[in-house]
Amino acid sequence: MERRILPADESKEWIIKAEEETDFKYGCKPEDRRPLSHYINYGIVNLDKPMGPTSHEVVVWVKNVLQLEKTGHGGTLDPKVTGVLPVALGEATKVTSALLNAGKEYVCVIKFHQELDLEKIKGLMNTFTTVIWQRPPVKSAVARVLRKRRIYYIDILETVGKYTVFRVGCEAGTYIRKLCFDLGEVALCGANMAELRRTRAGLFTEDSVVTLQDLNDAFYISTEEGDDSYLYKLIQPMEKAVEHMQKIIVRDTAVDALCHGANLAANGVLKIHADIKKGDHVAIMTQKGELVAFGETFHSAIKIAKLSSGFVAKIERVAMPRRTYPHWKTT
Length: 331
Hints:
Number of helices: 9
Distance between the termini: 53 Å
Radius of gyration: 22 Å
CATH architecture of the domain at 104-201: 2-Layer Sandwich
CATH topology of the domain at 104-201: Alpha-Beta Plaits
Structural class: alpha+beta
């Protein structure tokens, strides 16, 4: 079946405010970071979480295998749930918040408590392909308050007796176990989630997942045989985690000021995603595709394009180390 579209897939148009060449003496394309230690420290592993351990335990194993000081993950999976678990390495842990809000996709096995006609199941799934209300289950890491979540699509893959396999694309924070329970309530027979696998988190998909054994073997080959090529293949730049976000591209001369926490000024902007609105949380990028910082916009994209002075975004978190680009006082 053809892969359905999440909001992260939607193409975004740019507004070009100004044009300027980038200086390749400073910074680099994310995939060209060197040496290996630097590449790892700003990388993400798209891990295939196995059934059994908690997400925290898996992340600790990755930290130990790669001999890092810190790691983090982009969205908890229950111990019995498998699949896509992006693990941020070293300084890349600064981008995990971006993944928490990214759309997710799962393949789920639901067990209805009696056999249902396929057309009835399709009708049930269509009913829930909308904005739904959910209260998190008792065993959850968040407050049990009623909240809205959007279901983008539900595709039935197979039905066997009381079991139905379906693929669901949903907003971050959707509880699939609760979705299964609610489907059973509407069906008037009851239902429960039998098995769950996450197939997507943002733009990380199961097509590029890495096992813990893969990672361990690649690190051994790197340290014992001096061949780093396998680690470069298994680890992706941290910028992959923000591909679904709205973005602002800035001049080289604006980068280091942002790294020191300065707000983004209008004259530092080169390009803006056209549908940015006031108050949006955006990724601020260099012309080479490097993540500089996260920010909150003061104005819409159209207004930012027209401004010649003043601040256009408040810096919330810096991702790039200082002095990667020339100090603003020397430019």
